[in-house]
Amino acid sequence: MAQGSLVAVGTHKGYVQIWDAAGGRKLTCLEGHSARVGALAWNGEQLSSGSRDRVILQRDVRTPPAAERRLQGHRQEVCGLKWSPDHQHLASGGNDNKLLVWNSSSLVPVQQYSDHLAAVKAIAWSPHQHGLLASGGGTADRCLRFWNTLTGQALQSTDTGSQVCNLAWSKHANELVSTHGYSQNQILVWKYPSLTQVAKLTGHSYRVLYLAVSPDGEAIVTGAGDETLRFWNLFSKTRCTKESKSVLNLFTRIR
């Protein structure tokens, strides 16, 4: 949960566990999925879960488990979920190579994007431009694509050279970070909208499946199949407010 101490965990058997992180105890276990839950996204007190059963469940953790919305639009496993910063739209990615956008009330997607040629796990809404959505494709696609969800228009795209596993925007500048799998297992930082590559970070020896941004927006942590967590001081507020400063200085802040 963005605010508060609740942590949601999706399990292989299709359960969604809600934990009190501060107290270290499990509060509840939500049923409803018939296969593994590989994608979760909080929206205030609402929790969305995506599963191998192709269903997205939207539930309010304060109400009984029966109070849920079922969103069905993907033809294969749901592997990516992200709510927009204004809490109005949910983006979902699937192993069917589709990127869908849902509003907060409809049971059918309001937009569908089919340009990716592989699974869409990496999804990120821009905090700087309303309606701007970024997505990344798997090994057979490798592309980073941008969409104007206000008009349904496809914007820029670039071939990253590797499977795109995760995406996150900087809070302080119009930049985003992508993490990758086969074949380079790298972490890339891009300027938007030019898609100039600002930095390339290496160190992981297996695909970088997990990415989280620190609350202050300056650091990221990455987790990979090499069983390591790595912390990177990536998005300095000082650097982002001094455009004249060389981007090469970014490397001096990486630990």
Automatic annotation (TrEMBL):
Pfam families hit by this protein: WD40_CDC20-Fz
Domain CDC20/Fizzy WD40: 3-232
Keyword Metal-binding: no
WD repeats: 71-103, 201-234
Gene Ontology MF annotations: anaphase-promoting complex binding; ubiquitin ligase activator activity
UniProt GO BP: anaphase-promoting complex-dependent catabolic process; positive regulation of anaphase-promoting complex-dependent catabolic process
Gene3D superfamilies found in the cross-reference section: YVTN repeat-like/Quinoprotein amine dehydrogenase
InterPro entries named in the record: Cdc20/Fizzy (IPR033010), WD40/YVTN_repeat-like_dom_sf (IPR015943), WD40_CDC20-Fz (IPR056150), WD40_repeat_CS (IPR019775), WD40_repeat_dom_sf (IPR036322), WD40_rpt (IPR001680)
Keyword Nucleus part of the UniProt annotation: no
Keywords (A to Z) from UniProt: Repeat, WD repeat
One GO location term (cellular component): anaphase-promoting complex
Family, per entry: Belongs to the WD repeat CDC20/Fizzy family.
Record protein name field: CDC20/Fizzy WD40 domain-containing protein
